[in-house]
Specification:
It is built from 7 helices and 10 strands. With about 300 residues, the chain is α/β, with parallel strands linked by helices.
């Protein structure tokens, strides 16, 4: 009888052990960071990854796969990105964002990491506050000694950017004093607040709140946001501002290999503004600026030598 009771007890404790172990393993698996290589990792000097960070599952991170070289004076500037249609997924922009990241940037896009081969994402709209969440996360990770980003993030050089409705989100988040540059892509403030539900209801006087160098990248006159973006450019007089038009319409070149020509110009802007790369800055400086030599682009600038 004693042997029988002992066997029952052993089986019971073995069962409990297996249950607890299974729960712990499931929790660990769930908390793991997952990643995927986009295209070939980008054309920049750092092979980039698209990552779903366990500590920020609401966003998608694009960054160099090897962080060992980012320390001291060479850290990762931050770019927070809002998506077209204020979508809660960066699925349309992964080539573009990964390409930028391959030049040594920590890019944090709104929305969970897109599934491979799946177009679209969660149906709900995102909000401008998620750009601030991205910045807050990057700052916290830089301070966390247990984080792979510990002391590797350049929290003094932060950009907010976005496309279409995401560009309005970037405009709404841009007054944050931590923001050092703003990128508005295929976007601009509407003459009257409106648009579709969830779109930031900004008015033109919001432009007065901008405090950092700003770039508008538009798709030419066929871009539905062309008039709005060009009107913003005309109104902005108190900060350096650059506008570049390429005749590709509202969709830009984001889904082209390595993000197409929009990625080339955007990367140069970020290198200039966030890394003080004067060679990259030649694309935007001078009279005329370097980008004016390209037959693809029509450009204008204010408060930039």
């Amino acid at each position: 009888m004693k042997t029988y009771k002992l066997n029952i007890a052993r089986r019971y404790y073995l069962f409990l052990f297996l249950v607890v172990t299974g729960i712990l393993l499931s929790t660990q698996l769930y908390a793991q960071t997952t990643s995927r290589v986009v295209e070939d990792g980008g054309t920049g000097p750092y092979n980039a990854l698209m990552i779903s960070e366990a500590s920020l599952p609401t966003h998608t991170v694009f960054r160099p796969s090897d962080l060992s070289s980012f320390e001291g004076d060479q850290k990762l500037p931050v770019i927070a990105w809002g998506n077209g249609a204020c979508a809660n997924s960066p699925w349309e922009h992964v080539n573009f964002l990964n390409e930028v990241a391959s030049y040594g940037f920590l890019v944090i896009a709104i929305g969970p990491m897109p599934e491979e081969g799946v177009e679209g994402g969660p149906g709900e709209r995102s909000t401008s506050s998620q750009l601030t969440d991205a910045i807050d996360w990057a700052v916290a990770q830089n301070k966390d000694s247990k984080s792979p980003y510990y002391n590797k993030v350049d929290t003094e050089h932060i950009a907010v950017s976005g496309m279409s409705c995401g560009g309005l989100q970037a405009l709404e988040a841009a007054p944050d004093p931590r923001v050092k540059t703003l990128g508005v892509f295929n976007s601009g403030i509407l003459p009257q607040p409106g648009g579709f539900p969830g779109m930031p209801a900004l008015t033109k006087d919001h432009l007065e709140k901008l405090h950092s160098p700003t770039i508008y990248m538009l798709g030419g006159e066929s871009d539905i946001a062309y008039n709005n973006g060009m009107d913003d450019f005309k109104r902005i007089d108190h900060v350096p501002v650059f506008v570049a038009n390429m005749d590709v319409g509202h969709g830009g070149t984001y889904r082209q290999p390595h993000g197409g020509d929009f990625a080339k110009v955007a990367t140069a802007w970020y290198q200039w503004q966030l890394k003080s790369d004067e060679e990259a800055g030649k694309m935007f400086t001078g009279n005329p600026p370097g980008l004016a030599a390209s037959e693809l682009w029509t450009v204008d600038k204010k408060n930039i030598d």
